[in-house]
Task: inverse folding
């Protein structure tokens, strides 16, 4: 099992998934992120999945769980970099990511979080 | 070039075997010249089915095969277990229905993602799910 590194950039946590995820990696990432959000007071989480070549229902549900958990700590989650083939497949699989925000790339994801932060701070 | 391997058997007894199945199916799908989107659909479907074999079937075996038929080529993947079987197939194939804590999209979603889908099961009979995807 490999731990997915979580970087802190300002008040945003960035987890970039670079491995073929086993189910236990998925669960570990959920836990690690929850702890890190809580201990760091981060206001945003970015999940970079640009290197991920498949998302099945187990992995997809992780995004929703992370988004729901981070919201409990007043942090927003954005999933960035989803490949087109993955997006098409997710729709046909029937998985709607519902509450999960997505952005084309890291830069746009950070912009979304910055805009959300401005809105709540003022 | 080496000819594609025709058949590969992968035991499914642990978490990491699901990843192993995905990787094998991916390489067969590339050999069969499936488009990137079709590769992704097939790999995703087999990831769901391999996890079901592990979670509900108590483990089993995946068989991945390279197919040719006239000018087209394809991949067949089957997942066999001697677990409890599925008593109500229609219910199990309903979007969102799970007997466990899943999302209930594995079987129904996998069926949508492939060209051919067969489910051979029954209470106390184990379960075999076979899927095929062809190049276009
Ligand atoms: N190999 C299997 N053996 C026994 N039951 C199975 C098997 N595969 C699927 N099932 C049953 O079908 C249901 C639906 O499966 P699926 O669509 O993959 O959803 P999920 O895995 O989220 O429960 C499962 O909850 C389980 O009851
Ligand atoms: Mg399933």
Result:
């Amino acid at each position: 099992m490999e731990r997915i590194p979580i970087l802190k950039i300002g008040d945003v946590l960035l987890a970039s998934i670079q491995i073929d995820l086993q189910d236990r990696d998925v669960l570990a990432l959920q836990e690690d992120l929850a702890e890190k959000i809580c201990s760091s007071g981060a206001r945003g989480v970015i999940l970079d999945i640009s290197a991920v070549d498949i998302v099945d229902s187990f992995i997809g549900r992780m995004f929703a769980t992370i988004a729901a958990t981070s919201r409990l700590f007043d942090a927003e989650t954005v999933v960035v970099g989803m490949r087109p083939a993955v997006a098409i497949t997710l729709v046909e699989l029937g998985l709607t990511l519902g509450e999960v925000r997505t952005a084309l790339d890291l830069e746009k994801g950070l912009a979304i979080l910055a805009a959300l932060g401005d809105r709540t701070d003022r | 070039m080496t000819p594609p391997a025709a058949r590969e058997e992968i035991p499914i007894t642990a978490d990491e075997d699901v990843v192993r199945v995905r990787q094998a199916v991916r390489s067969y799908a590339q050999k069969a010249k499936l488009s990137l989107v079709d590769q992704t659909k097939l790999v995703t479907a087999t990831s769901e089915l391999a996890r079901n074999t592990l979670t509900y079937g108590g483990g089993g075996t995946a068989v991945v095969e390279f197919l040719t038929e006239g000018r087209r080529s394809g991949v067949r993947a089957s997942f066999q277990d001697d677990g409890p079987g599925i008593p109500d197939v229609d219910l199990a194939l309903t979007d969102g229905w799970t007997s466990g804590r899943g999302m209930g999209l594995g079987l129904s979603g996998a069926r949508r993602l492939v060209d051919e889908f067969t489910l051979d099961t029954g209470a106390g009979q184990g379960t075999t799910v076979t899927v095929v995807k062809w190049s276009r």
Q: What stands out?
A: The first helix of chain B runs from residue 15 to 31. Strands of chain B lie at 7-12, 60-69, 72-81, 116-121, 127-134.
